[in-house]
Automatic annotation (TrEMBL):
Pfam hit, one: Haem_oxygenas_2
A GO molecular function held by the record: oxidoreductase activity
Keywords carried by this UniProt record: Oxidoreductase
InterPro entries: Haem_Oase-like_multi-hlx, PqqC-like
Signal peptide bounds: none
Protein source organism: Gynuella sunshinyii YC6258
Protein name per the record: Pyrroloquinoline quinone (Coenzyme PQQ) biosynthesis protein C
Amino acid sequence: MLMAKEQFKHEMRDMLNKHLTLANPLFRHLMDANNPNPELLKFTTLQGYQLTKHFLTYIEYIYFYCPIEKHKRILLHNMYEEETGALSRTKNHVELLHDFIRALGISDAERDAATPLPATQQLIDYRMHACQNPELYHIAAAAVLIASEGQNLETLGEEARHSILGRIYQLKEEDLLFFSVHQKEDVGHVKQGLALVTDLCITEEMQQQALAAIERTCQYFYAMYQGIYEHLKLNELDLEPIQ
């Protein structure tokens, strides 16, 4: 049965909230204030950078194929901010991440030489495939505007992920602008995504496909972190008996 719009929005938000990537054991190592691991933070950041490099392309496709004019205007603002940073009075969002990467001591050459692990590539490809296919537009919107934008809203207690990392690794506020800007903006972006997908999904099948896209995207984010965790053999370290 086709859900009423408000119920559908509620179901989509619930789907997002029940898949918390901060529960991945990787973050236990990243956020261990008693044993900071700068090299782990660098490696994880370079995997995250693989995602950010493609994000504007996702938004461009979603804007281009958007069939609803009122939502298309909102997407234009989103795209403009990603490209220029003008609305947040910062700069291009990829450049903001470049600043964070440099603050970690990673050279531009090292940054550009990094490649995605298989699970990272899986997440990139899943969203790109949906974005490039107009018949999957509602799936692309759910995956990018809800599940992906929603990743920056996770907190541990009342503290945002980037605030914790900044404190542990002694990073300055300006180093963290990529994350603080996104945390603020993505509250609105997720709301906009929920509104767009709600208007797009006019059948029960489309609603279920959108919910599945949110769940699958969140699972792929978790798998990306799990891929880092296992690639660096942290899972083996966690299995070692305490002496």
